[in-house]
Amino acid sequence: MVLYIALDDTDTLDSIGTGRLAREIAGELAKEYPVYAVTRHQLYVHPDIPYTSHNSCAVIHLHENGSDIRSRLTTRVGSLMKERFVEGSDPGLAIARTSDITPATFLFGFDAKQRVVTQDQARTIARNARIPLIGLGGTEGGVIGALAGVALAASGSDGRFLHTGTIREFSGSRTIESLRAAGISEIHSVDGEPIVEGFVEIQKFPQPVCIRGQPVLFVERIGSTLRSVKRD
């Protein structure tokens, strides 16, 4: 069973950003728990929504081993976020399993990608679904992105992977086989062609998208070269 831990830091220019915050916390949790991945989810960009650069949230994916660890993780992650709090940010945290995500929660998550939604909506939906939703400073506006994050991650087909396997160790020219071994499930061209052999030029590190819950990397052909493509 997967537990989704969603963070939205609504960060400031002086903070490390939500994605890096999630990866740092995932690194801490991985010392005790089976962390599988960190994904990034793009939310609606609008003048009425406070954000620093891209208005995204991040979700840590963790495999439960049968014991109920959600309450412990809520306390642990909340403490780690408070330790890294930067004045002016408005962080929020949500933790849920797929079974916790009600139809209203899914709808809220996808609404948050295309229109302005509110804290009151987020808190009401989370309360009805019994999903822990916690504001950790400032206006607590991050609860919106946090609730949207657990819904979008649980959908299995939204966002891209910031971390899974060993993908962040890869850059430059890499074989298809090595990318698969690093944790990428499938590799396709943007035209839909399955890529099963050859080399791929990686600009920074592979950033596969989440499709059916799996990391799928898209590439484009430039002459005889395959180059990875970042998609939100």
| CATH architecture descriptor of the largest domain | 2-Layer Sandwich
User: What is the N-to-C succession of helices and strands?
Assistant: EHEEHEHHEHEEHEEEEE
The beta-strand count equals: 12
- State mean pLDDT (0 to 100 scale): 90
By secondary-structure content and strand pairing, the structural class works out as alpha+beta
CATH class wording of the largest domain:
Alpha Beta
- Strand neighbour order, sheet with most strands: 5-4-1-3-2-6
Number of helices: 6
Describe the structure in your own words:
By secondary structure, the chain is an alpha+beta fold. The chain folds into two domains: 2-160, Alpha-Beta Plaits, CATH 3.30.70.2200; 165-229, no CATH class. Helix content is 29%, strand content 28%. The strands form two sheets. The protein has a six-stranded antiparallel sheet, with helices on both faces. Strands 7, 8, 9, 10, 11 and 12 form a six-stranded mixed sheet that branches. Strand 11 (214-222) and strand 12 form a beta hairpin. Helix 3 crosses helix 5 and helix 4 (119-129) crosses helix 5 (142-155). The radius of gyration is 18 Å and the shape is globular.
